[in-house]
Amino acid sequence: xxxxxxxxxxxxxxxxxxxxxxxxxxxxxxxxxxxxxxxxxxxxxxxxxxxxxxxxxxxxxxxxxxxxxxxxxxxxxxxxxxxxxxxxxxxxxxxxxxxxxxxxxxxxxxxxxxxxxxxxxxxxxxxxxxxxxxxxxxxxxxxxxxxxxxxxxxxxxxxxxxx
Length: 163
Fold this sequence. Notes:
This protein is an alpha/beta fold. Helices cover 33% and strands 21% of the residues. It has a single domain (2-152), classed as Leucine Aminopeptidase, subunit E, domain 1. A six-stranded mixed sheet has the order 1-6-5-2-4-3, with helices on both faces.
């Protein structure tokens, strides 16, 4: 069940926050930067994972914080081409595979709710009308609440309906 909501995704009551990044992302802009500031250990663990595993776009990396919040980093963008370079733009191909992987993880881990932003429509450079159908394709029939934060309002808790 997908619900479009307005608010600040960092204030979500959902069990999982999913967001788009690149392999070896620096988490220095947008939602990724906010998450890096909220959960610095998550960023450190992500960077370690990237150095050890060298992940490819289209995957998902999951981190669980001590407070019970789970962050699913969807690898929607191409990796930076150099140590100080910016990540590439997101692609619908990468998003499709990353959402497919998120679905598998959500089912195997029995997640009870997921929140995600307008995936890859900010720094990723894609159009929402192209991305939203992929979200519905992979997440609509999961049988859990999926909150899509379509309008950002800083420090505002969205009205999320869990039933």
